[in-house]
Design goal:
90 residues; mainly alpha; 88% helix; rod-shaped
């Protein structure tokens, strides 16, 4: 498999692009604004806490996936570039 580092490079770049898109797509201000809206309109502190917790969980999950893809894509890209440089005849 002579093309393995090249295929890994493409996969790494795709993972970086998807991770970057997901990371920068998340709008933290919108989540905070929704939390404030929930807190001010709530009739029960317990219900407000549940709604805010559910709202924050979705943000944490999205950020975790984005950062995982960024890290995976970065690692795969760097490793494949190193392998491409090593295999080049001098």
């Amino acid at each position: 498999m002579k093309n393995k580092p090249q295929i890994l490079l493409i996969i790494g770049i795709i993972a970086l692009v998807i991770g970057g898109y997901l990371y920068f797509q998340v709008d933290g201000d919108a989540v905070n604004q929704k939390n404030i809206e929930i807190a001010t309109t709530a009739t029960s502190a317990e219900e407000a806490a549940r709604q805010i917790s559910a709202n924050n969980r979705s943000e944490v999950g999205g950020n975790s996936m984005a950062l995982f893809l960024l890290g995976l894509g970065g690692a795969i890209t760097v490793i494949s570039i190193i392998n491409l440089v090593k295999k080049k005849p001098a």
